Amino acid sequence: MESAPSYRDANRARLRDSLVDAARELTVRHGWGRVRMADVAKAAGVSRQTVYNEFDGRDGLAQALAAREIERFTVAVRERLREHGADVRAAAHAAILHTLTEADQNPLVRSILAGAPDELLPFLTTRSDLLLSAAGAVIDEWAAASLPDADPAVVALAGESIVRLTVSHVVRPSADTATAASALAEVFVRLLR
């Protein structure tokens, strides 16, 4: 049985959350390139050194911000997949449609896409290991529960492929959201065959 987090651990988690919240808000308003650790500290009501102690610099804060946003997306994707169970097309369509719609409306994602390519965009592209791992785990979990006869290697390949294609559409859409979600769901169905 896991013990409850200590008072100190709970306070540290609250502090990290408030710092990531502040970084998110500042990024939405000004873009990541203009976010300074001192600004995050001021917005959260702590010293700049406290921010550095928690994240070891901007890159650590960027990773925490990316991890938080990825978690928000994967929680919603997990819910959509579970709602449709073994109906692969419906599950994929619901999850992809939600992802594309949310990404289009999400002010942080919009800020990332509008920012300089070397700022936070790599968390969707060249440094997407966190995203691929989190989304892949959600797809693997869904498939294990809903498609018990599916080959895990095929599920992993299909999952990574569809996540990469979905991210590609988020970064550079080639069709409207509904059309893209339908097409990507069809690709996922075919990959799982």
From TrEMBL:
Keyword set, alphabetical order: DNA-binding, Transcription, Transcription regulation
HTH tetR-type domain location: 13-73
Coiled-coil boundaries: none
Molecular-function annotations in GO: DNA-binding transcription factor activity; transcription cis-regulatory region binding
Annotated Gene3D superfamilies: Tetracycline Repressor, domain 2 (1.10.357.10)
DNA-binding region: 36-55
Cross-referenced InterPro entries: AlkX_C, Homeodomain-like_sf, HTH-type_TetR-like_transc_reg, HTH_TetR
Name of this chain's protein: TetR family transcriptional regulator
Organism whose genome encodes this protein: Actinoplanes awajinensis subsp. mycoplanecinus
